[in-house]
Amino acid sequence: MVGCVAGEGHLDGDAESQFAIAAALAQSLPQLARQLSCAMIVLKEFPAKYRAPLHCLRDAGFARVPSMPMTTLSIDYKDFDDYLSKMLSPRTRGKVRRKLRAAERAQPAITVSVVTDVTPVIDDVYPLYEKVYERSPLKFEKLTKEFLCEIGRRMPDKVRFFIWRQDNRIIAFGLCMVQGDTLSHDYVGFDYTVAFELNLYYRVFHDVIAWAIANGYKRFYSGSLNYDPKWHLRQSLYPVDLYVRHTSGQINAALRRVLPLMEPTRSDPILPNFHNYNELWE
Fold this sequence. Notes:
single chain, about 280 residues, alpha+beta, Aminopeptidase, 2 domains, seven-stranded mixed sheet, three-stranded antiparallel sheet, 9 helices
């Protein structure tokens, strides 16, 4: 596997460097895979902006198929209410406000804090992450306690943990990354004994977006899956690609034909509703 285990893959440098890196990967990866006795080569979740430099991989026998896309949203608004008023239909706007009012009436009141190091409360937040992971119909990488602790310690300038509480009880958390004027909400955890009653999904979305706007961020990214509320909230798809090759030429010839029929985005009933669904394949 080439890329990031717990996120997107990227090519470094300027445009010229990216084409050179991609060409080196196309030439060297099949040989390296055979030396390591690896049958499959997968470049994991490279954003669509790299399709031009990575096109040489397709010439080298790799098949490109879409991975489950992330989503993105412009948050260049005065505040959360400004986003609701300008982006959402009256029906969806009313639904979101009703859910937020229900969360605001919760007793004890829900509070949120933002920290860079989750280590002191890792034993409280990690089970919430595990509950979300276990409920997911599709499972990818599973984070560890050590990962959640170390990412904040090593990258305090890039990591923001949002923690929601009722009294001293943690009921939700979110792992976000910041870069420039963008904020990416990558992982979340919920206490499902109260999550639906308190509309925690919408409360979490509200608090993260409101904090991001107040702190000068202009674009929001969210992880893959759970596409129905994201579609209603007028988010757009952010395509990420897989490049796959078998080291056996004969097997790879068959693999390239069947992979487009097996890739997971075709089975999701909500994805075609997004206005830029066709970008998953373009």
